[in-house]
Specification:
Helix content: 25-40%
Strand content: 5-15%
Distance between the termini: 53 Å
Order of helices and strands: EHEEHH
Number of helices: 3
Largest sheet: 3 strands, parallel
Structural class: alpha/beta
Radius of gyration: 21 Å
Length: 127
Amino acid sequence: PVSKEYKGGEDLVGAKISTSFPNLTRKYFKEKGGVTETKVTYLSGSVEVACGLGLADAIVDLVESGDTMVAHNLCVVDTLMQTEAVLVSNAKTSFPKMVKKLNRRVQGVIAAKQYKMLTYNIKKILP
């Protein structure tokens, strides 16, 4: 949680950690020297609610933009790994239309990220 002043993962050795990635999390805390005293609990779904519900002192989660994390009053203490999604296709695929369609959709998502959507309610006043 943001209210705590963690300087790094070492500050969480011995804490209760909830995650959808228990093996990665245990490996991380083993490298920090705290695998035996750090309690790692597997959760699926909305892991970020674990701290607010009192199930965990901290979480390990996959974060894209960080918006959900901020909405739950959480902050990044450490990064376990950097990842990226890559679309790879066989040049001789039996499904070229499907690959092309998937590629267009991915490109559409990438293009859409440069825009923001605003919604509002305004009273319409007729003359």
